[in-house]
Every structure is written in structure tokens, then in C-alpha cells.
Amino acid sequence: MKNVLVAEDEASIREVIAITLKRGGYNVTEAENGEEALRIYNSNSNAFDVVLLDIMMPVMDGLQVCKKLREQSRNIGIIMLTAKTQEMDKVSGLLMGADDYITKPFSPSELMARVDAVYRRVTMNGEPDTSINNDTITLKPFELNLRNRTLLKDGQQIELTQVEFQIIEYFFTNSGKPLLRNKILENVWGASYYGDEKVVDVNIRRLRMKIEDSPSEPRYLVTIWGYGYKWVE
User: Fold this and answer.
1) Half-sphere exposure of 8 (CA within 13 A, CB side)
2) Do 136-231 and 2-126 fall under one CATH topology?
3) Spatial contact of 147 and 114, defined as CB atoms under 8 Å apart
4) Per-residue model confidence as pLDDT tens digits over 194-206
5) Once rounded to an integer, what is the mean pLDDT over residues 178-182?
6) Phi and psi for 56 in degrees, rounded to 5?
7) Where are the domains of the chain?
8) Class of 2-126 in CATH
9) Angle of CA points 106, 120, 73, to nearest 5°
10) Fold for the domain defined by 136-231
């Protein structure tokens, strides 16, 4: 069963989300605030594949919950629910480890598409691809293991979320090639992604904080101004 935890303090919105996801084949657990969501998750962390977090919630907001969840698991799928006026909160959520965000109001089809996309990544992250012939890609000082889905730098493992791993994998398999933002978006988030290219930029920023010696002066994951990004060996 595909299990989703939905944390939303507005009962009417939470109900719509729950009904939509249940119709799409998901098992939904509801929480009315961040503290309750964290308590439910901690009581059985292996029970959930995806968590939907409203940013503005009483007791504990969605950003705090997102940070705590990501500290506990790099594999859980996290989607933030935001309002159009919460532009900085969207960026903050992604930097804290969220995989995606959905802006209110949203349609049932958009909700399903975004949750399905994150769920697929979670499932793929937990099940190694048996068709992989070459397990590793080495671009000194990095080593990417495609079977174990791990990244090493100078022999030290770098903790990556499933989105970050997919981004790194895309760059490693296209090392030295300038990659358009929309191509990164399509490859990692899917051709039917509803969001904008900003999610790419924020995730690149987050990755640089993990892999670069000086994130503000990237050596490996460089910007091609007016185009996109490139991995430099």
C-alpha cells in the first residue's frame, strides 16, 4: 500500500487532499498540526512513503517538521503546501530538504501528479535497478554508486535525498555537457511536472552546500549563465 501522511490545519483542505489521494490508491493518515504529524511519523517512521506539509500550521510549522523529518530520513518524500505569497518559504522548504512544493489553490490532477512523481522516486530509491551493469561512476574526487545509490567524496559518504541523487546522477552521466534547466527539470521531476524551473536552482544550491568546498565559488557544479548548469571534472 502507498502510504501518505497529510499535515494540514484547515480541515476542509485536508479532507479534499485525503479524498483525492485515496481515490488515487493511497492510504492516507491525517494530522491537524505539525507537532501531531511529527508524533505520528515517529511512532512508525517506516509506515510512510510521502509526507505533505502545510507551511503555516499551529504548534509547529511545516518548515520545522520538514527539517526534523529530513534529519531522520533521506528517503522519505516531502512535499510542502504553500500559498502564492509564501515565496521565501518555498525556497526555505526546498533548502531544508523538501522534494517539491504545491501552491494553493491546486487542482486534484496537479496534486496527484506531484505526489505520484515523488512516490516513484521514493520507490526507485529503495529498489536498486537490477539492469545496472556498471555500478559506479568515478569523477575524482567523487564516486557515485548507482546500485547502492550513494555518493562518496574522498572516500567520505555525502548524504543525499532521492532528488539530489537523481540530479547528481544526471550530471555524472552527462559530465562536461551544459544542461538546460528545463532538461534537468524534465529528467528529474518528469515531463508532466506542473512547477517552474526555480525548483532546479534551489536544489542545485542545496547540492553545492554538500559537495563543494566553497559553495559560493563552485568548482564542480558550475553555472552556465543564461543557460543552465554543467559538471566540471
Assistant:
1) 24
2) no
3) no
4) 677 888 999 999 9
5) 93
6) -90, 95
7) 2-126, 136-231
8) alpha beta
9) 95
10) Arc Repressor Mutant, subunit A (1.10.10)
Q: Which strands sit side by side in the sheet containing 26-31, from one edge to the other?
A: 26-31, 2-7, 50-54, 77-83, 100-104
Take residue 39 and report the three cell numbers written for it.
Answer: 508524533
> CA nearest 112: which of 52, 166, 163?
52
HEC string of the chain? CEEEEEECCCHHHHHHHHHHHHHCCEEEEEECCHHHHHHHHHHCHHHCCEEEEECCCCCCCHHHHHHHHHHHCCCCEEEEEEECCCHHHHHHHHHCCCCEEEEECCCHHHHHHHHHHHHHHHHHHHCCCCCCCCCEEEECCEEEECCCCEEEECCEEECCCHHHHHHHHHHHCCCCCCEEHHHHHHHHHCCCCCCCCHHHHHHHHHHHHHHCCCCCCCCCEEEECCCEEEECC
* Separation of alpha carbons 174 and 166, rounded Å: 12
pLDDT digits (tens, 9 = 90+) for 111-135: 998 899 889 888 875 544 434 446 8
In the block, which residue shows the cell 506542473? Answer: 194
pTM (2 d.p.): 0.78
Residue with cell 541523487: 165
CB 80 within 8 A of CB 102: yes
